[in-house]
Each structure stands twice: as C-alpha cells, then as structure tokens.
Design brief:
Radius of gyration: 12 Å
Helix content: 55-70%
Number of helices: 3
Shape: globular
Largest sheet: none
Order of helices and strands: HHH
Strand content: under 5%
C-alpha cells in the first residue's frame, strides 16, 4: 500500500461527518487492500500505529 493511498483515505474520511459514509469509504478501501496489507490498513485507519501489546505493526 502506498502512503498516498492512505493519505487519500484520511482526506476522504475527514471530508464527511456522516458515519455511514465513513463506513462505506473504509469498506471500499479495505476491498482494494491485498490480504497481506489488510491488517495493517485496519490498524492504521483506527488511528493507532501499534495495537495494544504489540511492538511492531507486522503480525
């Protein structure tokens, strides 16, 4: 996943206050992620870099 794709996702999410629209934006983004990138994309989209108890983003 390119950082520019993640930045675009954040801009789209910031552009709306509607929860259902945010859900749809995230769902569309997650569908485009490779299986190996999905976990990282979900973690980053929650606003955290490292999930609780993990030392690195990789699983």
């Amino acid at each position: 996943m390119k950082f520019s794709q993640l930045a675009d996702l954040y801009e789209r999410l910031d552009g709306t206050t509607k929860k259902l629209e945010k859900r749809d934006i995230l769902a569309e983004f997650y569908k485009k992620c490779a299986d190996t990138e999905l976990y990282k994309a979900v973690v980053l989209s929650t606003g955290t870099v490292f999930p609780r108890g993990e030392q690195e983003l990789g699983r």
